Amino acid sequence: MSVRTKLDSFKPRSSWIRYLVTYLTLFLVPLFARVTIIGRRHFPARGPFIIVINHFSDLDPAFVIYTFRRPMIFLAASDHKIEWFNYWAVWLYGFIPTNRKSLAPSTIRQAHNWLKSKSILGIFPEGTALSQVLRTAKNGAVYLSSICAVPIVPMGITGLNKPWKSIFSGVRPKVTVTIGKPFGPFKNSVRRHDREKILTRNGHEVMCRIAALLPEKQHGSAARDPLVDRFRNENSQ
Fold first, then answer.
1. What is the DSSP letter of 224?
2. Between the chain's N and C termini, which has fewer beta carbons within 10 Å?
3. Complete DSSP assignment for 103-152
4. pTM of the full structure
């Protein structure tokens, strides 16, 4: 049985608070980083849809908000410790609490309700552990795409390796945010024993689509997969 944490009581804030945080990022992010955004045209004009993002830094959510510039809903793990200097931002924007090992019924219900209201969900499919290369996807994003019949938009963020070291040295890090073409929604098998295999396969496709937006040295679990080149070509067309 999982032990409830303080983060389990969190929930997405009202839209006007999320709008306010968005405006704050438009002011604060350029002060601390030089940001290049590529492919914003790939964002659908309206929801619902899911944005999937690589997770290389604790600062990734701020750059997602800065790039998207509309209120959105994040799914984030509630069974891990958040450092005090990140806690205030997480508390201010709010999120749907999730378990890193499995999607609880309450998580699925909340996510489904938000998507039904035409909201946009932000999901880091790798989970919370940070690395500078892509890892294997958890099943949450592809599962929600299939049961809610919504498309997915991939996003890649680079340049946030040790950002505080650069900032405290008086140098604004160069951050590149790249958005790929929407894809999906995924479909799952009606046969139970096929579902896990299909979720895993679709999760790998998600990581390949994110890899297509990142330098080759960061492809990790998607390295040398021919799907990456195919998706990169699709995004450039």
1. T
2. N
3. --HHHHHHHHHHHHTT-EEEE-TT-S---SS--PPPSHHHHHHHHHT--E
4. 0.91
* pLDDT tens sequence across 153-180: 999 999 998 777 777 777 888 999 999 9
Could you tell me whether strands 174-179 and 152-158 are parallel, antiparallel, or unpaired per DSSP bridges?
A: antiparallel
Q: 166: Cβ–Cβ under 8 A, 6 or more apart, which residues?
A: 172, 173
6-9-15-20 Cα dihedral, nearest 10 degrees: -10
C-alpha closest to that of 154 among 23, 50, 227 = 50
The b-or-e profile of 79-101 (16+ CB within 10 A means b, else e) is beebeeeeeebbeebbbbbbeee
Distance, in Å, from the CA atom of 166 to the CA atom of 170, rounded to the nearest integer, reads 6
Centroid of chain to Cα 7: 18
| Residue type for position 19 | Y
Q: Which residue has the tokens 């450039």?
A: 236
